Amino acid sequence: MSASHPIIRRQITVVNDWGLHARPCAAIATEAGKHDCDIQITNGKKAASANSVAQLLMLEAHNGTLLTVTARGQRARQAIDAISEIIGGGFGERHLVLKGIGNKCGIALGRARLQAADHSDIPHFTIGKGSIAAEQRRLRNALQAVRRQFEQLSAGGDMPDAEIDEFRHLLLAMLDDALFSKEPLKLIASENANAEWALKLALDPVLAALKNSPEELLQARYSDYSRLMQRIIAQLDRAKVPRRRRRGINHVLISIELGPAEVVEAVRAGYEGLVAADGTRTSHATILSRSLLVPAIVGCGEQIFEQINENDMLIVDSDGGLLHVNPSDEVCQRHRQIAREQEEKRKSATRQSGKVPPSTETRDGHRIQLLANIEVPEEIPNCHKQGVEGIGLFRTESLFLEKDEIPGEEDQYQIYRRVLAEMAPLPVTFRTMDLGYDKSIGKMSATVSAMGLRGIRYCLRNPELFKSQLRALLRAAPAGNMRIMLPMVGTAEEVQATRALIEDGRAELDLQDQPTPQIGVMIEIPATIHLINSLAQTCDFFSVGSNDLVSYLLAIDRRESQLSNQHDPRHPAVISALKDILQRARQTGKPVTLCGEIAGDTGFARLLATLGLASLSMVPDRIMPMRKLLKQTSLKSLEHAVGKACQATDSEQIVEIMSGFDRQ
Ligand code: PEP
Ligand code: MG
Question: What is the DSSP letter of 155?
Fold first, then answer.
């Protein structure tokens, strides 16, 4: 070949599933033979003549390998075009592989469920004068439900607690903005508009201004506001994330972008993998999904909505950041095998780390048990990572909140068994369904008041429903170390009635040989403080639900945004009640835990420990910093300050005293 002939070079990625195996190599060699050119293909340092099947095989090129094709000869361009076409065409074996940023959390396989953020199909209808108040109530309920979703966002994995707190505050502050909390309510009345449309009317000018702003920072805020609007509209519709599955089919959620709340909800809804058009390596969705151990790929670009159709088969390879669309059965098998091996490794690491959690002792030798509050089984690996000593509160109702109806006994049994097995031998405290008020489900309207038919009251009035949960728990109990806890108890009779249902369940299931799990009572209603002695006759342990207790003591609805500053546990009455509870419970000899938010607060945890509380249950990510803090703390040296806090007459004094704990 004359040296004066042109040399054409081109780079091309191998896209077929199995790379350059024999058949593709033969196809390249056959094509190369048709051209009067010298064609070379290289993979890094390995080079092959395009005419030699053996040399091509030795390139060891796989799916995704970048090859360089070089042709020298008069018709080099035509040769390169032809070779590129057959390699790029995947030799008839090709499936689409999209690239994004993976969260390095393994592999998931499932069918695509598309969730497009579309502002164009917001429902619009006219509200009659007589229905305005009801429509406003519908919007208020949706706002409250979203508020609760944000309040319940808990940190995970590597995310510093301060960061998620900041984030939660940001979301809550946006929600409190008049733009969401007041304007749409006014527009419902003035425009006779339905709630969704009123929201759109209120938000449209702001969204347009943000979107068209020359400031990059303001443009970024556009997606925050539009996502929040979509979330409220979805809540009005009770849709939230698209329903995941027909039973037995795995699903992968495809969305424009994922915020932390969407990640948590998708995980709760049972999605195997998450994909988003937007997002970066450090976006909260990436970090949070990793801590929840769900494979995710973000930053795939908006074209994914053209490239992926509903129900397409997907492989989310979050380690490589590769999203395979409609891969062959062989490719699925190969990835399934890798996913199984990864899962096995994870489980054995979980089992090992679950065996001996570190214990926590203060500097002056007081042992404090640190337990976790969780809502979904997916949080367990993180609990082990944080070294929890057990689950002090498993909010079972959280498993149902995304669904239209409460799952049956069998489905519940499977979940409870899994949680117990993954935590064994550590204890798991299952709180029976705390439905009603802020935790409504399906048709159960969100109108149940804080003082209405909720918690144990609701369960005892729906005995079939309650029994199916108790039966599921009893069946699962042998899988680990189970405790059952009852929410919103107001009387000893309620505990006795529950015990009777448990005994019925044991008899029906023929489980009388099995010990009854320990039964605990939550102290949330102030009246129970005065009933601790009689309640102790009916239960095995107490757990203080300080979130609700504070509400009822102060008569402030925890959902009432206008009073959120006053819903403050640093109130003399709360401190006095907590002291009282601990004293009374100590006299009964029954163990006490506290599982409200204040358990994870550095000031309160030290105050409570000094008052004699030896068990705290908090969001998993508070465990490690709390252990560190308590180990450095001498309760003896706090006694004086805590004594003063118990005498304080206003919140400011209490805040001041607690902030001085660090100096003791
Ligand atoms: C509480 O009230 O403190 C509690 C732990 O229960 P929840 O927050 O789920 O109502
Ligand atoms: Mg409560």
Answer: -
Task: Quick: pLDDT tens for 578-635.
Answer: 999 999 999 999 999 999 989 999 999 999 999 999 999 998 888 999 999 999 999 9
DSSP 15-54: -BTT-S-HHHHHHHHHHHHTSSSEEEEEETTEEEETT-HH
Q: Which residue has the tokens 């997002």?
A: 279
Is the CB of 596 within 6 Å of ligand 1?
A: yes
Q: How far apart are CA 58 and CA 67, in angstroms?
A: 13
CB 201 within 8 A of CB 182: no
Q: What is the pTM of this model?
A: 0.54
Burial of residue 283 (number of CB atoms within 10 Å: 0-12, 13-18, 19+): buried
Tell which residue, 636, 643, 654, has the closest CA to residue 598: 654
- How many angstroms separate the alpha carbon of residue 236 from the centre of ligand 1? 25
Quickly tell me which residue has 């190599």 as its tokens. 25
Residue 391, classed as helix, strand or coil, is strand
Q: Phi and psi for 358 in degrees, rounded to 5?
A: -65, 145
Active site residue 251: no
Kindly report whether the peptide bond that precedes residue 425 is cis, defined as omega within 30 degrees of 0: yes
**Range list of H helices, 463-513:** 463-476, 492-508
Q: Is the CB of 594 under 6 A from ligand 1?
A: no
Helices and strands: H and E segment counts in the chain:
25, 20
The pair phi, psi for residue 281, each rounded to 5°, is: -60, -35
